[in-house]
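# nightly structure sweep
# worker-07 picked up a monomer target from the shared queue
# config: single-sequence mode, recycle default, output format = structure tokens
# input follows
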Amino acid sequence: PGMVSVYDEKTNSIVHSTGVQPSSIVTLNPGSGNITVTDANSGGTQIVYTAVDKSHQYQIWFIPIGGESTTEPQSSPQ
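# output follows
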């Protein structure tokens, strides 16, 4: 469990943050322009952000409860 944040490098801002549980999946989809969260415990996928710009580059950060943050670079097709 922890917190996932999506950071837009072009605008230098966090565009979405959400709490997650084990087995949760956060997906940034530049093609559809959205971020979704699938939570295994609730059994569904929710669209949580709808303004993803495929010309921007994004980073997804995970901060576990009681731990250090990790960063997974994500880039949109240019």
